[in-house]
Amino acid sequence: MQIPTFDDALAAQRRIAPYVHETPVMTSRFLDDLVGAELFFKCENFQRAGAFKARGASNAVFGLTEAAAARGVATHSSGNHGTCLAYAAGRRGIPCTVVMPHSAPQAKKDAVRGYGGRVVECEPSTTSREAVFAEVLAETGAEFVHPYNDPRVIAGQATCSMEFIAQVPGLDAIMAPIGGGGLVSGTCLALSHLEPEIAIYAAEPAQADDAARSLAAGHIIADDAPVTVADGLKVPLKDLTWHFVRQHLRAILTAEEDEIIVAMRLTWARMKLVTEPSCAVSLAAILKNRAEFQGRRVGVVLTGGNVDLDRLPWMKGV
After folding, report:
1. Domain contains 262
2. Residue 318 lies in a domain
3. Which three-class secondary structure state does DSSP give residue 116?
4. Quick one: pLDDT band at residue 316, thresholds 50, 70, 90?
């Protein structure tokens, strides 16, 4: 297991600067009053390819040697990592193949193809994703860029919180969604070196709460095919992300499906921000646990805005 260092995060920050946005931070007096805290929203939904994962994907792609890059890259992804890897590969001019569940939002499949990537569909389970991906890797010989259990990806994701604390000094806490744990691991990597007094929280769907159960049990618990509206948070922790999660997280808080949808609608209605369900889990967990955050300055990472506009979760009959 190769654990990324803070020097790796600094190198990633320099490497990806030409390929990612410095995303803005926004606030909402309505949501501040609702929670009783000062909330600062880091808008990675405005990031290249619509998600924070452009950071880790770009670091991995642009860190490849010419020989490795010539073989292309491949991954398995529920959507955003695949989209972002296709974006980065397109910028470097190399092939990209993404194994995606057939149930993934059509908008995310279309985005991968739009950036020049190839989509190979699989069943909506971790077992199927990994089995189909093994076949793709054997066929292509491409460089595997894991969606989160990859030191290059974690180092790239660390740049989000590095940027965040430079934009908003004096945060008491940072909250981010957790699925496989790449963003949270990057946050832990950065803040443990730069601002160790900031409490790091993660948010997870109650119907896919394997990370919360893992933290409570002291070992990884993996669910194969959880069902949740937060499609980007269905994957389990792996050894590399577990290393950071078990050492640095203050807590993992969960939210129910209806709470996630309410939070998503609130950011759309009150902040005019397009966020996806996986992104809305953070606000949902904060709203559910207001006493934990009252009177504090809380950073909230809005991780992505890639949604199927024809199938919004509050629409009837979809």
Report:
1. yes
2. no
3. coil
4. low
